[in-house]
Specification:
This is Helix-turn-helix domain-containing protein. This protein is mostly helical. The protein contains three helices and three strands. It has one domain: Arc Repressor Mutant, subunit A (Orthogonal Bundle). The radius of gyration is 12 Å and the shape is globular.
């Protein structure tokens, strides 16, 4: 099985859906759900009043990652 290479950071948008977020941070969507519930990853997101889809703000995600690395 051939492994898929991760895209460069600049190939990701500033707003990520949950699938894009999982790809961006290199984990499964199930783990993203756990990180949202238990590790504060949900603080990097917003839900527009119309549409109802939740988006994660990439610069805030980067800050969250840095805070967890300490």
């Amino acid at each position: 099985m051939e492994s898929k290479q991760r895209r460069r950071d600049d190939e990701f948008g500033l707003l990520l859906n949950k699938k894009g977020l999982a790809e961006y941070i290199g984990v499964s969507q199930a783990l993203v759900n756990e990180l949202i519930l238990h590790e504060g990853l949900g603080e990097t997101s917003f839900t527009p009043t119309r549409g109802g889809n939740t988006f994660f703000i990439r610069p805030k995600v980067d800050e969250w990652i840095m805070s967890k690395g300490e």
